[in-house]
Design brief:
The chain is an all-beta fold and about 140 residues long. The chain has no helices and eight strands. The protein has a single domain, classed as Jelly Rolls, CATH 2.60.120.
């Protein structure tokens, strides 16, 4: 038998558990894994499950790009990978505007101060792809 709901959240402010960034950190150059958006979970919050992450990026593919890998990582391009798409090819052609969304879950964040990054790597890319928008969103649960 499921546990009954005893308390509604209509009057509860959960704002301290939501973090977001829309700052474009950089555009990927050539075939280098590049951080396109960074987010820091600044709250000293207790968690029972972890941190849900949602990333989005829109960019124009440069040069001879044939595939793109998107990753959510802890800390930076050398940090623990939370989620990776592997090399995706749909719509990846020089000059195309591509928009991609990815999600991940970090069951072992180090709070406060956990840094997350959204990275993009263009396979076969020559020159720099241009990121026009990026978003990284985290919910601590």
């Amino acid at each position: 038998m499921p546990h009954p709901i005893n308390l509604g959240a209509a009057g509860v402010d959960l704002g301290d558990r939501f973090f977001q960034s829309t700052a474009v950190a950089a555009s990927p150059s050539g075939t280098t894994e590049t951080t396109v958006c960074t987010l820091t979970v600044t709250g000293d919050l207790a968690f029972t499950k972890g941190v849900f992450l949602f990333g989005a990026v829109a960019y124009t593919v440069a040069g001879s790009g044939t595939a793109v890998t998107y990753k959510l990582r802890q800390t930076g391009t050398s940090g623990t990978t939370i989620f990776t798409t592997g090399a995706t090819t749909a719509g990846i052609t020089a000059g195309n505007l591509v928009a991609e969304n990815i999600q991940g879950f970090d069951a072992s964040p180090v709070l406060p101060g956990q840094v997350y990054v959204l990275t993009v790597t263009v396979t076969g890319g020559s020159g720099a792809s241009t990121v026009s928008a990026a978003n990284l969103f985290a919910i601590v649960v």
